[in-house]
Amino acid sequence: MANKSKTQQKSKSQQQKSGAKPASKSTTNKKQVHKVRGFWLTAALVLMIVTGLAAAIFYNAANTPQVDRTWILTMMVVANLLDVIAAIGIWLWKRWGMYVYLFATAIAFVAGLASVGMWASFYLILPAVIVGWLLRSKWDYFDE
After folding, report:
1. Is 97:52 a contact under the CB 8 Å cutoff?
2. Which residue range forms the structural domain that includes residue 129?
3. How would you class 19 by CB atoms within 10 Å of its CB: exposed for 0-12, middle for 13-18, buried for 19 or more?
4. What is the pLDDT of residues 85-120, one digit of tens each?
5. pLDDT at residue 119 in the model
């Protein structure tokens, strides 16, 4: 019994000197969480991808030299393509997906303010609020 405790003390002191951690307290063993997307979040992400692609195509087609302020249409194309990228990122549980979506919403909001005004651009912010509400309890699922 005395030999066993001396051996344990020696191995502890060697671990402390080498900076190694004891095997029983491994920090790499994280508990796997079952990530459930749910119907509404799945529907919102699919809708983001479909409408993002459709709107990008529409705004790109409307971007002709006869249109005044073509930079607004260009901003809307960029914002909608970023929406698609953001939806894919959120689908894959990447935190940057939500940040890209907020950035795309800000771009679309600025373009909406410049073109149609405050009240009409409200609908550009509402989808981000809905997606944020759907993700409120799932933020821990996201990877860095």
Report:
1. no
2. 38-141
3. exposed
4. 999 999 999 999 999 999 999 999 988 888 877 776
5. 74
Please indicate, yes or no, if residue 133 is contained in any of the structural domains. Answer: yes
User: Vertex 91, ends 90 and 95: CA angle to 5°?
Assistant: 25
Rounded distance, CA 33 to CA 132, Å?
Answer: 21
* Number of domains the chain is built from: 1
Tell whether 10 is covered by a domain. no
Residue 124 inside a domain? The answer is yes
Determine the pLDDT at residue 25: 47
Predicted confidence at residue 26, as pLDDT, reads 45
Residue 138's pLDDT is 84
The distance from CA 52 to its chain's CA centroid, rounded to whole angstroms, is 16
81 Cβ contact list (under 8 Å, min separation 6)? 52, 56
Residue stretches of the chain with pLDDT short of 70: 1-33, 63-67, 120, 144
**27 domain-assigned:** no
- The answer to whether residues 89 and 78 touch, using CB atoms and an 8 Å cutoff, is no
The phi-psi region of residue 63 (left if phi > 0; otherwise alpha if psi is between -120 and 50; otherwise beta) is: beta
Looking at the DSSP bridge assignments, the partners of residue 143 are: 94
